[in-house]
Amino acid sequence: MAGDATTPVLVLDAARSPFGARGGGLAGVEAAALVEGVVDPLLSRSGVPREAVAATFAGGMDAVAAATRAVAAGSSPVALAVAVARMSGAPVPDRPGDDGSAQAATALEATQTRWIAAFHRGAFAREVIAVAGVDHDEHPVAGGFADGAAAVLLAAPGTVPAAAPLAEVVAVETLREDALDALVDRLGWGWDGVDLIELHEPSGTEAARWLTRLGAAAGRVNVDGGSLAIGDPEGVSGARLVVSLADLLRRREGARRGLAILPAPDGVIHVAALAAPPR
Predict the structure, then answer these.
(1) What is the pLDDT of residues 87-107, one digit of tens each?
(2) φ and ψ at 10, to 5 degrees?
(3) Are the C-beta atoms of 51 and 171 separated by less than 8 Å?
(4) Which pLDDT score is estimated for 131?
(5) Residue 239: what are its φ and ψ, rounded to 5°?
(6) CA-to-CA distance for 84 and 278, rounded, in angstroms?
(7) Lower Cβ count inside 10 Å, N or C end of the chain?
(8) Residues of the chain with confidence (pLDDT) below 50
(9) What's 278's DSSP letter?
(10) Residue 121 phi, psi (nearest 5)
């Protein structure tokens, strides 16, 4: 992992619940049950006993960062990052709207079209774990508001010998948007070396702006659809980006490196850089 870490950090496995529309199929599921509905089968299929998880961190990308630090420092050989939101019945938070431009409309249509194509070819079969009888995203999620949970299981190499990790965590950082190019260079990748980008889309307008900002790399953004199609449970999307990216690195032929980018207010972004593990 980039930085001061001495122990590499692997994504042993990662998954999420379906993202349910506000008032939809997951509306009656309590937050704890949503989390357990993802975590229990995730640990089971990974061959990791619950007692082997030395630390659990709650939140979105912050939880992934904290779990990564714990494994890298050697204090938690196995750590779990979880995030959950129940937006049904909760006050609707303010979110940026679209500016009505053709670019925003095109970005919205593109992400939804990619999600539909990915869903119909079964791309989310491993990423999404059925909860309470709901087995797929309740697409499209109006306004992005959704109920859902996500979990990322991290470990040091050799901790679970039988596991086939999805990815290695190269870096998890919070920085200014204008420092993103420098981060990609510091990783030694360059934009030509970034095969996949999972970008949170708070609105069509922001999605269009980011596609312009990423230039030639825009064709590698949200290849199976993004937040505007999947949904955006408050505080879960950072973890969801990592889940989706890790699963893409597993199943997309030739993909070796990727970025998960979560924009925040005031020009700040949270970024996770993942690489496919040696096979």
Answers:
(1) 998 887 676 678 889 999 999
(2) -110, 145
(3) no
(4) 98
(5) -65, -40
(6) 31
(7) C
(8) 2-5
(9) P
(10) -95, 10
